[in-house]
Design brief:
Length: about 270
């Protein structure tokens, strides 16, 4: 398990001014998840003051901008403006041009995606808050039924995308770690409230460890690592960077994974 914090990033001096990936030159940008972490994307917290504007931004790589608070107007070239408020995500395609205007003091999480990583793409539109709500969570559970087998490689369906989504965790609500693992969690940033993260290594004789996540903290589980996540407030929430598990050959029993991945893409599709 790796835990990143805004405080540690500031102590390391990872304050980014005008990162070249999208030529974003406004606001204070702190790189909480560095590219050297090897997670396939970096994660910045961007602080924008009301009235901050940039008329021309060109994305050299696909990105996600997720609004934690405030209101930001994004206007793609030749398209109608999109308003980002708390709980919404804008996925920027590689090569896309847009304008930005902060209508209120705002905080964004900005993920710059690695074009070489499998499944990391931008999708271009906003997503709704809490893709796991109102029965959507069941789509993230790995199933092994006959219906799922139809979504296997033989069907010719494209591999699942990696997506960004906000999820809300209620106090006392169980099984969130299982849902996130089934969805292919890559890393997650605390958006609101306080969360208790417990994890244990697959190695024997290693004690369980605990971290308390508050806004400005990110966690990234290691492969095969068991963990549990609980809300300590009535409601807490995460911004999740999700990547469907890699497909295996059909003889290895891929049907369950492929079925879950297909449901995930429907649940949090950004297009």
């Amino acid at each position: 398990m790796r835990v990143f914090s805004l405080f540690d990033a500031q102590m390391r001096g990872e304050i980014v001014a005008g990162a070249a990936a999208s030529a974003l030159r406004v606001g204070l940008q702190v790189r909480v998840v560095p590219e050297a972490a090897g997670l396939g994307s970096s994660g910045d917290y961007v602080f924008l003051r009301q009235g901050a504007m940039q008329p021309g931004i060109a994305a050299a790589r696909a990105e996600w901008w997720a609004c934690l608070c405030g209101a930001v107007k994004v206007t793609p070239a030749g398209c109608a403006p999109v308003l980002l408020s708390a709980g919404s995500v804008y996925a920027i395609r590689q090569g896309e041009r847009l304008r930005l205007a902060a209508l209120q003091d705002s905080v964004l999480v900005r993920a710059v995606l690695d074009p070489q990583a499998v499944g990391l793409v931008g999708a271009g539109l906003t997503s709704s808050f809490d893709a796991f709500a109102a029965g959507q969570a069941e789509r993230w559970r790995m199933q092994g039924g006959a219906g799922d087998a139809q979504a296997g490689p033989a069907s010719g369906h494209a591999p699942p995308r990696l997506n960004a989504a906000f999820v809300t965790i209620a106090e006392g609500e169980p099984a969130w770690a299982e849902r996130l693992r089934a969805g292919g969690l890559n890393w997650a940033a605390c958006h609101e409230g306080t969360l208790r993260l417990q994890w244990h290594s697959p190695w024997p004789h290693v004690e369980r460890q605990v971290a308390y996540l508050q806004p400005g903290m990110v966690f990234a589980p290691d492969p095969e690592e068991g963990y549990r996540i609980d809300a300590l407030d009535p409601v807490a929430s995460l911004l999740c960077c999700l990547q469907a598990p890699r497909r295996e050959p059909a003889c290895a029993g891929v049907a369950g994974v492929a079925g879950a991945g297909g449901g995930a893409a429907q649940a949090v599709s950004l297009h």
